[in-house]
Inverse folding.
């Protein structure tokens, strides 16, 4: 499928185009994975806790 310039959502729906991507966006869009939900996020939280303890100690 060749790319075409976007004009408006009304025009896309009137022509019947874009239904697949609209359906994906509305129904099947996967949840974004945030850094805090990864092992790196766990390590960052642990580092923050350690640094906070050091600050309180001083």
């Amino acid at each position: 499928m060749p790319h075409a310039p976007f004009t408006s959502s009304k025009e896309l729906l009137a022509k019947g185009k874009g239904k697949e991507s609209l359906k994906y966006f509305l129904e099947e869009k996967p949840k974004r994975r945030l850094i805090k939900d990864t092992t790196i996020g766990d390590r960052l939280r642990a580092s923050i806790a350690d640094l906070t303890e050091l600050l309180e100690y001083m």
